[in-house]
UniProtKB/TrEMBL annotation:
It is an enzyme of class 2 (transferase). The gene is Hs6st2_0. It comes from Crocuta crocuta. It is a single-pass type II membrane protein. Keywords: Glycoprotein, Membrane, Signal, Signal-anchor, Transferase, Transmembrane, Transmembrane helix. One of its GO terms (molecular function) is heparan sulfate 6-sulfotransferase activity. Residues 1-24 form the signal peptide. This is Heparan-sulfate 6-O-sulfotransferase. It holds the Pfam family Sulfotransfer_2.
Length: 148
């Protein structure tokens, strides 16, 4: 009987571990709808609830006006205007910089050669560069070096 109870205990422990793994797969975050027992606990106020009582996923730290966010900037690629793209680590800057030289629609798009990281972004009809970034001019002291 002792051996039977050990096997039963082992089976229960294995079943419990399996249930925990499945629960972690179904609810990987800290907020799991399956584990909420609203009837037994008092509801906690949501600190990210907006003024109109709708749930807000993003809480802004800076209060920019709509005009600030939707402002239009006249960039004259044929004139003397220049874009300097500052790469900040771990912010998606590499992806954005790549899109800036490869996918932007201009009169004269940047010329990117296969196998090279740098692209040439000249102004229409001139040999001047309108974009200063990692993918147009490169960094002489490395991408994440101080004071780039």
């Amino acid at each position: 009987m002792d051996e039977k109870s050990n096997k039963l205990l082992l089976a229960l422990v294995m079943l419990f571990l399996f249930a925990v793994i499945v629960l972690q797969y179904v609810c990987p975050g800290t907020e799991c709808q399956l584990l909420r027992l609203q009837a037994f606990s008092s509801p906690m106020p949501d600190p990210y609830r907006s003024e109109d009582e709708s749930s807000a996923r993003f809480v802004p730290r800076y209060n920019f006006s709509r005009g600030d966010l939707l402002r239009k900037v006249d960039f004259d690629i044929k004139g003397d205007d220049l874009i300097v793209f500052l790469h900040i680590q771990k912010t998606g800057g590499t992806t954005f910089g790549r899109h800036l030289v490869r996918n932007i629609q201009l009169e004269q798009p940047c010329e990117c050669r296969v196998g090279q990281k740098k692209c040439t972004c000249h102004r229409p009809g001139k040999r001047e560069t309108w974009l200063f970034s990692r993918f147009s001019t490169g960094w002489s002291c490395g991408l994440h070096a101080d004071w780039t």
